[in-house]
Amino acid sequence: MYAVIALGGKQYRVRPGEKLSVDRLPHAEGDTFTPPVLMASDGDKTRLGDDLKGVTVSARVVQHTLGKKIHVMTYRPKKDSKRKIGHRSRLSLIEIERIKV
Fold it and tell me: What is the Cα–Cα distance from 37 to 12, expressed in whole angstroms?
């Protein structure tokens, strides 16, 4: 069984017990929430659109983390101009607890 959910403008294919990193969520660590479900399948039957009325996905925020640091170097030759910047993405680690059909 799997489902496709929408979080932060992106779509994720999830299964029960799966953990994934997504963009930072407004929920606190340990909170349970239900993301919008776009599609669900239990092997035989695929549900889309109006068939999704009884389908819910329960997810729990495990922790808030920072992604790997990305370094960006800007350089203009013959202008004595260079700049080093970087950032770390703010992420949330979530665990899919169950998919209820």
Answer: 10
User: What's this model's pTM, rounded to 2 decimal places?
Assistant: 0.84
How would you write the pLDDT of the chain (101 residues) with one tens digit per residue? 999 999 999 999 999 999 999 999 999 999 999 999 999 998 889 999 999 999 999 999 999 999 999 999 999 999 999 999 999 999 999 999 999 98
Length of the chain: 101
- Full DSSP string of 64-78: EEE---EEEEEEETT
Strand partners, 66: 90
Token digits of residue 56: 């819910």
